[in-house]
Each structure stands twice: as C-alpha cells, then as structure tokens.
Amino acid sequence: MDEVEVRELMPSEYKEWDLLVEKAQPGTLFHTSDWLEICRDVLSRDFKIYGCFRNGELVGGCPIFVKNIKGMLKIASSTCNMTDYCGPLIKEGASSKASKRMQDTHEILGALREFLCKQGFDSIHLTLSPGLEDVRPFTWKGWESSVRYTHHLDLKENVDSNLSRKIRRELKSAEEAGLKTRSSNDPETYYHLLSLVYEKQNLEPPVPKGFFERVFKLIQEKDAGYMFVSETPEGEVVASHLNLYGKKCTVTWSSA
Questions:
Q1: Tens digits of per-residue pLDDT, 28-38?
Q2: Comparing 241 with 26, which gets the higher pLDDT?
C-alpha cells in the first residue's frame, strides 16, 4: 500500500477540496472552503486545510481553525462559533470489502494524526460530523474521546408517531394560538430574534450580523438550506429556524 502524504492545501486547491466534501459521506457545508472563508473574514479565525494524498490524489483531509492565545498557546480546533462540527473527511473507497475500507480509513487517519502532532499545537480538538464513527487511529495513540449524539428522524416513517408528548403539546398550543409557519430568506429577521435570546441573558450574540448575511448569501447561491419563520395572526415573527442540507438529509442548525 502506498504511503499517505499530508500537507497544507494551497488556496488554488480549495476547489479540489470542495469536490471531496461533496462526495464524502460525512461532508457538510461546514467543511467547504466557502464556509471556512466566512469564518476567517467575519470572525477573524485563521484556518488551514490539511489534505491527505495517495499517489497525488486527494483522499482525505481536515480543516483546522488555529488560535494563538497571548502568543503562548497554539490551539487547533475543527470548530468555531456557529460551526457545530467539521473534522476529518475520507474519500469513499471503491472496494466492497469492509476490511479494505477500514484499512484505508486507518491509514489516512493515522497519517493525519501524526501530521497534526508535528505542527506544534498545544491542544488539538476535533468534533467529527455524523457518519465518521471509527476514531480508533486516535484513541489507540492516547487521544481522549467522548460521544455526542445526533438524532436522526426518518421522514419515510410516520413522523407523528415518533413525537414526544411535550412536542405534541407545543404543536397543539401553537395551533390554538393561530401561529403560521412560512419560508423566509431575511437575515435581519433571524438576527433580531437571535439577539433577543442573548439579550435576555445579558450576553452578546456569538457572531456579528455580517456572519449571517454572508451565510444567507451562501445558502442562496448554493441552494444549501432554508429558513422557516413562525408568525402570529397579526403578522409578528416570533420564531425562526435555520436548516442546512447534508448528504441525503437536512441538518437542523440554529433556532431563535
């Protein structure tokens, strides 16, 4: 088996990276260079995309946000504000054998792990997207791991039968109050509601309005998601919900 080479991608290679994101099962909008550049430009978060190559072909990789704390600590993380998860991606192999796919996964993740450990980071934190479940190449080498759950609702099934009593009561209350739901693409409406949520806690919103303006533009350009708003009979918007498209699914991202 040919060795896996890991290196930082140049901006000219980001299109190749985005193609990998599109094809890889765990790939999400959070992984794309467009999203990472929004975080860099609006949130001032420096990022790097480390690519894994085999025989010159990009077969995996991982975006990393880099933060220097007072010039003393160099922190690496696959997430930042409003970026729920990201982490490593691996190109899906053509082999039908589970053992061969597992071997490829371990070789790519193992090479990525060794590369990250040589970059002089004082701390490395990876939050993996749903679909990438085998973390043994990290835990075998002493990395700490913890489980976070993502709830999956199959829309081919009877959704109503899977709702909790609490949700049923809330839906009934909303219906009795005359609330109506419609689609919207207004970032101003969403940011206003989000600001109110944090204002009640005497906190600032986690990101500036410009972040959502850029994200809404990206969603429209890429047809990468949608927003619902709920209104009173008088037309006042009282709630908003943002969803992002994933692989054969929709990811619930943020509500206010």
A1: 999 999 999 99
A2: 241
Q: Which residue has the tokens 């479940």?
A: 133
* C-alpha–C-alpha distance, residues 205 and 186, integer Å: 18
Q: Is the pTM of this model over 0.85?
A: yes
Query: How far apart, in whole angstroms, are the C-alpha atoms of residue 255 and residue 197?
Result: 10
Find the DSSP H helices in 79-164: 98-117, 136-139
Give the integer Cα–Cα distance in Å for 110 and 88.
11
Give the type of residue at 13.
E
CB 79 within 8 A of CB 65: yes
Residue 66, CA distances (Å) to 11, 47, 129, 220, 253 in order: 17, 6, 19, 28, 23
Token readout for 146 is 């913890």
